[in-house]
Amino acid sequence: MNFTKEEIAKTIDHTFLNPDGRMADIEKLCEEAAEYGFASVAIAPDFVEYAAKKLAGTGVEIDGTVGFPLGYNTTAAKVFEAREEIELGATELDMVVNIVAVKDHNWNKVKDDIQQVAEVCKDITFKVIFETCYLTENEIRKLAEICLEIKEVDYIKTSTGFGPEGATAENVKIMKEVVGDQKKVKAAGGVRTLADYKKMIEAGASRIGSSSGLKIIAELDE
């Protein structure tokens, strides 16, 4: 499977979520995204307004986070966070599910949590983060089935990158097997090389979340 730099860039959410970052890092991230044509910048909520102004007119999406990274914020807090980020300029949002509710198999609560945020995100791209490293295969499948029932969900996503393990090809395949062509899959967490990238795309991912996008593209010249 061969890719051009442009093709790769268009599938990558250029990510900076380091807890010890500075505004200079966000500025650099935005400049790189515009220069290379990345799909989006994936950033924390506090930087959404800045990025939206910085990248206006470039075609780069503004990808904020909701309930990040642990997911057990109240649903009301997630709804508020999503609504505020959209008002500040977010065009995509990645929300972490309530992982505790998933582990308790409290599926009604899980679905309601996703559904309420999804309704706020009906006019933008909405991604649901599973954090697969904490889940069994059956839980991953059930969660994917729930997301199939919610029309506003555009992507199901493997990971935050903050768990003990990120995306695996096996989990991407499981997620894609459940949703087929009805939803897309985003692989994130630990995708640092061109080999990693190809593995996730071949497994069924349509979007990649990575802070190593420049390195992945540079490997095409090696």
Automatic annotation (TrEMBL):
Catalyzes a reversible aldol reaction between acetaldehyde and D-glyceraldehyde 3-phosphate to generate 2-deoxy-D-ribose 5-phosphate. Pfam families: DeoC (PF01791). It catalyses: 2-deoxy-D-ribose 5-phosphate = D-glyceraldehyde 3-phosphate + acetaldehyde. GO terms for cellular component: cytoplasm. GO terms for molecular function: deoxyribose-phosphate aldolase activity. Belongs to the DeoC/FbaB aldolase family. DeoC type 1 subfamily. HAMAP family: DeoC_type1. Keywords: Cytoplasm, Lyase, Schiff base. One of its GO terms (biological process) is carbohydrate catabolic process. Its EC number is 4.1.2.4. It is found in: Cytoplasm. The active site is at D94 (proton donor/acceptor), K157 (schiff-base intermediate with acetaldehyde), K186 (proton donor/acceptor). This is Deoxyribose-phosphate aldolase. SUPFAM superfamilies: Aldolase (SSF51569). PANTHER family: DEOXYRIBOSE-PHOSPHATE ALDOLASE. Gene3D superfamilies: Aldolase class I (3.20.20.70). The gene is deoC. It comes from the Bacteria. Pathway: Carbohydrate degradation; 2-deoxy-D-ribose 1-phosphate degradation; D-glyceraldehyde 3-phosphate and acetaldehyde from 2-deoxy-alpha-D-ribose 1-phosphate: step 2/2.
